[in-house]
Amino acid sequence: MSKQLRSTVTSKNMGATIKRLVKYFTYYKGLFIFGILFTIVGSLGGIVFNTMLSPIIDMLTTNYSLAVFIRYLAIMVFVTLFAAAGQYLGSLFMGRLAQNIIHKIHEEMFVHMETLPMNFFDTHAQGELMSTFTNDVDILNQALEQSVAQILTSIITITGTFIMMLMISVYLTAMILGMLVFVFIAVRFIGKKSTRNFRRQQSQLSIMNGYIAEMMTGQKVIKVFNHEDETIEQFKEQNEALRQSSTDATTFSVMIMPIMGSLSFVAYSLAAMLGGFLVVGGMMSVGNIAAFLQFVRSFFNPITQVSNQLNTILAALAGAERIFALLDELSEVDHGEVKLVTHEDKKYWQLPNGELKALEGAITFEDVNFGYVEDKLVLKNINLYAKPGQKIAFVGSTGAGKTTITNLINRFYEINDGNILYDGIKLNEISKFDIRSTLSMVLQDVNLFEGTIKENIRYGRLDASDEDVIEAAKLANADYFIRTLPDGYDTVLTVNGDNLSQGERQLLSIARAAIANPTILILDEATSSVDTRTEKLIAKGMDKLMKGRTTFVIAHRLSTVRDANAIMVLEQGEIIERGDHDVLMDLKGRYYDLNVGTIILE
Ligand SMILES: Nc1ncnc2c1ncn2[C@@H]1O[C@H](COP(=O)(O)OP(=O)(O)OP(=O)(O)O)[C@@H](O)[C@H]1O
Ligand SMILES: [Mg+2]
């Protein structure tokens, strides 16, 4: 089960989330200020109308005058136009603001994701991450585009209305304030109940998306094992869990509308009755009470409308929490200060004190201990020394830790104890970027990207010319098959190069490694799963590629291992035998068994 992007559930978090969201508004001060300004203009229209009710009615009921009537009419037309323009511009600016914020958040998320360490991706499912990029951002977008403007309008209307009500009658306003206490109690109760459920809804949605993504990529396996029914069953369970959490989430949030509705009716009737008494007692005019009643409407309306958007707002906050949880994931640490520099076409390591050391490609492991997770060591006490240009091979049963060793040379993971030295410099003192720029990997699990063959090979070194690409392909023995394709080097690959055979993909990945001209080369089981002819092609390509480079090779076949300068036999994370082929065969130990007992011996 993968970890979820989820922070602990407290109401303090919600405050922190809102605060953090507000910070994004301040990045676009112009849009924000104009947005608020025009929204205020737009909202004031309503207040002005209601205010005018009182003098108009009083004029109509007491001393009627056509001239005054027309003047009022003109003012109203003007106010209407003004308010409409304000509303339009307000929404326009607020919409732009929301789009800019979402644009920024998207970018921050992607940029941050690129800085995350390998173990983040080990522990988080791809589909679930995808869900944060899509659903969580979408719902936040919706809230920002609609709810924020709505909330703003509401706050302005409520404040303005409140002031006008106070001016008409303090008593009646006090009564309305009393009603507000009930509103707050209801909102607090419902908000508390719903927040947890909306969090559950967003997280369940991401779990389901993770499942869908996994099932999409696993179609072949599902079909061949006839697991369609089980897959559907499991999906139904997830879907049901999502329905359940969404239902729970809305159960409380839909209560808010009727509660607000009834409260506003009660307030309206109370104001009408009390107002009636005040009018009879001569303390208020008919116009006053008519305007006041209209204000009561205007006062409760926005509260009801905002409450109505509670669903979107709470779901968006839950989404924002998950987005921020992703942004708060710790980036890969890199304190490496040693940099790679070039002098007269030769590369050097530049130490912090300015001293230069030639880049040679020597790798040393000193008592290295490492585990992917706490309390479980995968590599124990590893010692090895690869001189520049040497070929070091790792053999051993599955899960012994061979790939893990190569993951450490790349600095994909940080070691628990011991030291890894690169040309005598501690690996964690060298900048990751520079380590990786001297390394190439050819993995069994080839990853190609959507694009042409040329682009995929050039991925190894972006400034390579077309000639370099062809040369690298020739070195990798890939040139021949590429030329037989209708579009040659411009053939477009689908995602992950699925329109090529596995052997062809492997040849391309060798070409991609070759073009980078690395000092250190890592080959992980690159020759398995292809036919003998292709294997020979690959082997030849690799031989050419390995020349003059320090190479770490993990292979199950003798041909790739036999001529290694040193062979390390790994078992359960420990090197149990080491030496060259002849020494190890003479030893008649694990290596000998592996050779005699399996297809490794050819
Ligand atoms: N990302 C990971 N997170 C946690 N544990 C892992 C991870 N990758 C590998 N392991 C564990 O580390 C151990 C060594 O794995 P490794 O991939 O190094 O084996 P290997 O020798 O390359 O095996 P194979 O020959 O099958 O490729 C295994 O027990 C494996 O379960
Ligand atoms: Mg492996």
Could you please describe the fold and organization of this structure?
- With 602 residues, the protein is α/β, with parallel strands linked by helices.
- It has helices at residues 11-26, 29-61, 66-115, 118-123, 126-168, 170-217, 219-224, 228-253, 256-280, 286-308, 310-328, 402-409, 432-437, 453-458, 466-475, 479-484, 502-515, 532-546, 558-561, 581-587, 590-597, and strands spanning 339-343, 346-350, 356-358, 363-370, 379-386, 391-396, 417-422, 425-426, 439-443, 451-452, 492-493, 520-524, 550-554, 566-571, 574-579.
- The chain has two domains: 11-328, Up-down Bundle (ABC transporter transmembrane region fold); 359-597, P-loop containing nucleotide triphosphate hydrolases (Rossmann fold).
- α17 (502-515) runs parallel beside α18.
- It is elongated, with a radius of gyration of 35 Å.
- The structure holds adenosine-5'-triphosphate and magnesium ion.
The main pleated sheet reads as: 6 strands, mixed
CATH architecture type of the largest domain: Up-down Bundle
Number of strands: 15
Helical fraction equals 55-70%
Coarse structural class: alpha/beta
User: Biggest sheet, strands in spatial order?
Assistant: 9-12-13-6-14-15
**Can you tell me the CATH class of the largest domain?**
Mainly Alpha
The Rg value, from CA coordinates, equals 35 Å
Give the amount of beta strand, in percent: 5-15%
